[in-house]
Fold these 3 entries.
Entry 1:
Amino acid sequence: MDSLTDTLPIGPLQEGIWLFWQLNPTSPAYSMPEVFHFDGDFDTEAAEFAFNEVIRRHEALRTTFHETDSGVVQVIDRDPEPVPVKVVDLRGLSPAVRTERMQSALDAAANLPFDLTAEPAIRLTAIQVSESRTALVLVAHHIVCDGTSMTIVLDEFGELYRSARRGTPPDLQPIAPGYSTFAKRQLSALADGALKEESAYWRNRLAGVTGSALPGADHPATRVPGALNTYVVSTPLDDGLAEALSAYARRARSTPFAILLCAMQVVIAAATGDGDQAVGTATSGRTPTFARTVGMLANMVVARSRIDMSRTFADTLEELSLDLMDAIDHQDLPFSRMVADLHDAGLQPGADVVRTVFSAGANGALKLGEGRLSEVVARTVEGPFDLVVDCDMAPSGIALDWEYALRTYSREAADGYCAAYLEILAALLHQPDAAMDSLGLTGILARVAPSPRSDAPSPGALSPAAEPDPPADGLLTSVEGVVAGIWSEVIGVPVHSPHDDFFELGGHSMMAGDVVALVRKRVSRTATLRLLFGHPQLRDFCSLLDVGADPGRASNAREDSRLPRSAGTA
């Protein structure tokens, strides 16, 4: 190994992306473009300094990938050459030509493929539109950067740029553990057989699964490599709908994301007549140790649910929330390994496991300090999914960003589906306790989707877990004492009674993920989100934990297991 490089196997979460790149080396489908218009005095020199300092701080951004006799490896450059900021100067052109050239330059910068074997998978382009306006295009490849990582990159780039302009030291957090540390832990867990439980869960859960999608073209469209063949639509929720969503989330003890995902599955079920719904959603894969690590830490899980239109949205949401919590409890198995397991076991008949991805986008923004900055959506090429929906839930409001593959959907159908989704969401929130087939949902969809099949199966409901009778004794057992300490640590209030309720004490779904992770580490690996949500009283929850002979023993096999958290349910 070269003294200036480090070499390690490719990480499990990178495997599927690498395979796609090998088959489609000129496709930028897994590129992540961030595009901004900056009105003010842009300092190219400060930007180049900030850009290269971010690369220096994060080893994933100075990594290349190579095939060897022993498999694919990633090579980390310890002392990389500076990466120049590409500058495109349009200032001398006439206004009409400049407008045309600017869009062309934006599209080119956002969609230029990466050679993952020869260059760092990140680049920055500055398009000088006029003396006072510059367009910035920051692009990273998904193999080295997930959504949360991009927010970290933008945050640090902005701080470094501002500090260079001020001539003062930057205010940055210490450099986080590198992605190689995260990847080695994942590889070790797989080699040690620590994820057998997760493998068994997904083989059982996804046997025979077919990814769900809104109806589109009834025959495959021809793919044109590199063509901008996606259609991106952003649909903000108006103030009334956003407030209704938040209010119902509070009443239902749910999250806005879970409600939005549930509504998506209802829309697909109503449009297709198929009650067996399987939609992909991203999980963050981050413990506090790796909170600021840049790399591909996000995993995908499949939310598979039964949607029975004769039931209420309230009941459907409750069951979907439990399904989603189960999926997140088993999120540690990388998606590529999950799919491989299904094929190896003969349980996947060849259909795509995921056709629709519905996730919560990471919140983050670039701040350059001076001037005015606005973000715009980049036009991109199609990827492996028919539809990708990112839910942007910021303090300023909620919006859904839809990316339709034009091989499957027309622009007219895409616009219609977006409008129908918002209308159906409003109807479900207005009457959550009414049978969904009484709300006219198929009529709303009739403008854009085929009528649902009349022979759709009517799935049955999940049976609620039986709750044991609590002991009369009001004193805490040793296990209850440990768990009470964890609750108190996370919620920030004392926990004294075995009948204290996690949610009545002020706990919520974000805290629930932290609690379950700590209980798994300190008490029992059998703790799950579903268990906590179904049995929120301390004694009930503890009585269902399998602690074996030594209640205080933590599971060493997953000492730093990832928090069961996703942007949606956390």
Entry 2:
Amino acid sequence: MIDWKSLLLGTTAGLITLAGSASAADLPVKKAAPIEYVRVCGTYGAGFFYIPGTDTCLRISGRARAEAGYLQSGSRNGAGNGDNSQFRGLLRLNVDARTQTDYGTLRAFLRTEMASRTGDNRMTSGSQQRIGNAFPAIGQDSFGRVQDYVAVDKAFVQFAGLTAGRASSFFDFYAHDFEIIGQSLGSDVFATNLLAYTQQLGGGLTATLSMEDPNFRKNPFYSQATSPAAGALGQTISYQLTNAPSPVITSLAANGLPSSISYVDVVQRSRMPDFVGVVRYDAPWGSAQLSGAVKDINIGGPLAGTAAGTVNPTRLTGADVGAQTSYGWAVQGGLKVNLPQVAPGDSLYLQGAYGQGAAIYTGMIAYTGTYLSNATVFNGNAFNQFLSDAVLNPLTGRIETSNSFTATISYLHYWSPEWRSAFYGSYGEMHFPRGLREAFGQISQAAGSVAAGGLGLPFVTSGLPVAANGAGFPYSQVLRDTSQIVAGASLIWSPVKDLDIGVEGQYMRAAILNGKVTNNDRNATVGTGANATPVYPISSQDAFQARVRVQRDF
């Protein structure tokens, strides 16, 4: 007898099982996403990896640095003098992205630096503050002594011989490569805006033409801190930053002295880029480079409301003095020789530069400071050094350029794989056209003023008050030819890879090339007015500084 009940239940269960199996088979299966592993990119050296999902290789690196230093200070007299200690903490981040293309490697490189630095102006860097690359504290005790900065140090693209963006100037060669303090004489513009093309000529030889931002290579005209609104000769007020007036003699009195003076704005405008050309040779034994640069030097027009009451001043030759453009230039040769026969890693740099109207290109201002007309070479220095690229001749109303040259030697020696030292020395001179000092002296005598430094109406510079055309004139520091020696040595210990612990000492000597000048710090004279002569004249000044550095790269 058939058990219909059991048969019915078994058939129903089988159908349900079959239906369930069919439904599960019909459902889509969700697969796990593939895991993207970071792959090492060995094409461009250590540290590169592929950005997941792309064929671009990336390297992220950085630096942490601590520094402390000491700088000799000549005096505590005067604002900003008397500082000896220096401190800095620095952070650097680098991003290097490279992709291989049919045209070669496409590269983008980024670097940012952030730092907090304190001390005298040698560490806080008035140069970087003047160029807008740093900002100061504004407290009574901290102004000029505490400074922070966040800088776009590098941001450039390289492709098929093209370099475009923010990068180191192609003109530079040695650029303080072995130094801790980095203030030997020589060009070192580590960040500027440029557009350049490099052609590979074969056999290690390359040629580069670079169009570079002119603002980073302009050292200002010599200018007096007088207001063109002053009503009479010898009457002055403070005049800074936005304009820089320079006097032009417009007429002479019967005694041969100026009877009227007008002012011209000598602030340089950004009118054309600097053009830099470089030929470089690289070989296993080292490298050699020849650099050349051309830059414009320009002034604005006459300033309204001048002391003589004229808007379009006329110089003595009778022509109007208006906007002008002249040109400066510089050449530099450099040689680097690798010396593994002395010790592995040893190398020697030799470099020399000469220029007209190009003090930043020659690097004559590397120690004293950039983007200023004149300055003391250290706090409390006995005299100012004049650094202008050019001067407006007050007799002719024409631009006249200074000339300068520097020479540098630097040697790096490894005592052992962990210990190394650098030894370096540099020398430079700064010269101004003859007759300029005498021309400004005429203005001073005409004004009947006893000018600071003895030339022209009162200057920004400090100096012993002596008259222009008296016994004190030979002791004036204004627009004097000067020389500098900067030399130093270091000892660096690297106990592990990418860690440096080092100390460096540096000696500097600034000198007047002919004669002596008044002493800023010992302000005393014999006599008054035109016959005032200094009691303590000086022809040179020495300084010493030292710095300790702890640095980790990764």
Entry 3:
Amino acid sequence: MKLRSKNKMLKQLYLYLPLLLCLIFAKVTSCSNADVIDPIEQTELADQIDPTVPSNGAYVLPNFSTPVHYPGIAMYTADMGKNKSTEINSEWVIRNSQYTTTSSEIIRNGFNAMHKISFDGFNTGSDYLKFVLAVQGELVNRRPVPAVFLQNLTGISFRAVSYGVPINIILEVFGIDGTLIKSENFEVTTDKMKSYTMVINDQNLHHISFKILGENQDLSSFKEGALGIDDIYLNNNSTRPFLPPTGDTELLDWLKKSSIHFFLWNYREVGGGRGVVLEHYGDSDKVSLSGIGYAYAAFILAEKEGMVSASEAKQKIVSLLQWQQDQNWFDGSGGWHGFPFHYFNKDGSAFWPDVSTIDWAMCAAGIRVVRQKYSNDPEIKEITTELLDRPKWEEAIDDCSSCSGRIAMGFNGGTGSMNAYRWGLAFSEETELVYLEALASGKVSPTILNKIIRDQKSGFYPSWFGAGFTYNWLQLWMGTKNPYYANSVAAYQSDATTSNAQFGNLFMGLTACNTLSGIDSSGFIKWDQYISNQGASVSGANTNEVIQISPAPYGAVLALPFIPTTALESLRTYISLGYYHPLLGLPDNIRINDLPQNIEVPVPNWDPFDINIGPIAMAIEQSQQNSIGNYYMSDPAISQSLQTLIQSF
């Protein structure tokens, strides 16, 4: 993804004019095969080519000082550098004939990244290489592409350059059933990276293939080489690159809908009237309990935003309820003591057989919201009430004479015995949410609140690691309310101060996320390091236990109900960095500090977890109308128990 500087936009508009005219008259004549030299190559980047490299030498990737965007919807930009996955989390693979060998690498220069695919062994006309991408989702477990991707579709564009010898490639477009919709040949040369466009508007588009076929090459010289490919876009009626909205309301509405998209796109029917939402794009089977709680809220908001009909929202919610109802949470097959497991396979079987009381509390909050939203629906009321009554909270209290008397963080999946960890040893709104749900169940005495430890530091109650979500995990469901509100204001101000000091800018969002663990020799990044100890300089932990390396925009959104001006400034700071997408919003997190070798600029992770992205929609809606909070607080058991919880401060 790339962003052009304002002082050169007029100059570049003239350079784009031939391509724009081409698109305007596409219905009359096809000019998609024209070798359109990338205007960025011709202007501001021309002086960044290494002058020591001969003009007839191998292509040198220019250095970009900021990401650059193009008109349409980006499918693949190589910025994230994740192997076999695009920035919109669709799958890509490389296929080749038996005796043809291939290799891939990500090449970077500043904010510019490119996927280079090298090949060897083209000896016959039947030898081939295919670079295949799903428009959205997986190549094998195929699902229709969401309509919003294909709205006003006019074509597919990409930028490419060859190494060694010119390459004739065939761009093939396929429907969901594998039917070839259209194919077109393009001649990719070695001198410049150029832009190419195929005109197409077929709404059945599912995946595309860049095919190099031996019979289309001059095999006397075409034995080995490489294809550099970048910036694959779905074109629409837009003639200018997408820019995030500038107005506060429009900006937040864009991010809110981007958050809801996640739940709509990751919803799966599993048969028998049941359904789930997958935990993240990169897993085709894993379901998290807390994510189901956020899915309940997300589908309610999807209806409110007009993104789905009332009947569709209700159908999805009922399917989630029925999926949960079919599980046994008592005998170790689906949970223990009436608490469901933390993770499930989408068929409802145990994926990771351990119980987490905080994940249940988050899910229970969503179920309570649903019960109040559909209070006049007997079926929904019956299922939600039965699910909420299942957990035996009395079994989760460590109440032996020599024990702490606090609520356990969970149970061992194999035996059902309490684990060694307890809620209440330090302040966090996770703790408050767990104790609130336990009280609202009516199965424990308010005396359990006497064991909660809340220690102030620097004038507020910091959580152990100071991670952002701990400042409003309860208020996210109920709405802002003192004494939590005042505490969150101070805590998020501390977060902002630390962010400025650590990142040199207001990249606020010191919270839990999945960040990079390393980079391989081919330049592909591994995004599999989960960190929960990101936090501000003020926390309950020792200084050496807290890190600030990968701020997450969702952390800034969580601050919106408390320090709105600062939160909005932070979101615009993320936007100014240049990583954004018209349909996905902002990345889950951006690695800024402690970068691995060979990476010199911040890099984005576009694969969020449900528990990260769901709060974006909820926090924004809370700052606008707070409908989720109003539903939650209309539950009598919650409103009464909350007063008891507040009195324990």
